[in-house]
Write a structure and sequence with these properties.
Blueprint (H helix, E strand, L loop, with lengths): L1 E4 L24 H9 L3 E7 L2 E10 L4 E9 L8 H12 L5 E3 L7 H5 L26
Parallel strand pairs: 4-5
Antiparallel strand pairs: 1-2, 2-3, 3-4
The protein binds coenzyme A.
Coenzyme A binds next to strand 4 and helix 2.
Length: about 140
Amino acid sequence: MITYTDSLDGITADGLRGGFFDGWGSPPTPETHLQILRGSFAVVLALDGDRVVGFITAVSDGVSAAYLPHLEVLPAYRGQGIGTALARQMLEKLNHLYMIDLICDADLQPFYERLGLRRYTAMIRRNYAAQSGTFELAD
Ligand SMILES: CC(C)(COP(=O)(O)OP(=O)(O)OC[C@H]1O[C@@H](n2cnc3c(N)ncnc32)[C@H](O)[C@@H]1OP(=O)(O)O)[C@@H](O)C(=O)NCCC(=O)NCCS
């Protein structure tokens, strides 16, 4: 059975070893993943026992604006409503804020529209040398 929590109590790097950041060239390690969760303003996790199978994070000033940088469900658990539940619970937690923004691929826009978000434009910068969460100096 999948359960949901917004607490990091008892969550260890070992519980994050399922293969998150699927498809990333330089994925964060489970230890760095735990740092990402701890440094976030808010998190919601989907758990299968003590194993994390999905997560969403928010960074925020706590007053006006939040950005949702990460939402992922492990491939074997997708298509069961877990991603929707994670996003819904996070949006509920941030309901008091004016701005909630995220970046997604065009094919995911219908997924977020079903959750009440609307399409907009964005600007981004990506420093791929820092993708793993550990900045790597170029030679
Ligand atoms: C996006 C993601 C979190 C959805 O999680 P999930 O648990 O499968 O989501 P749900 O079961 O609640 O909803 C599934 C629906 O999402 C939509 N969806 C998910 N991924 C999609 C994609 N890449 N393209 C188009 N639609 C997608 C589909 O409509 C799907 O409906 P279906 O089950 O009828 O096919 C998951 O696919 C994932 O981790 N993807 C990789 C990371 C990612 O892209 N994260 C989003 C960052 S903005």
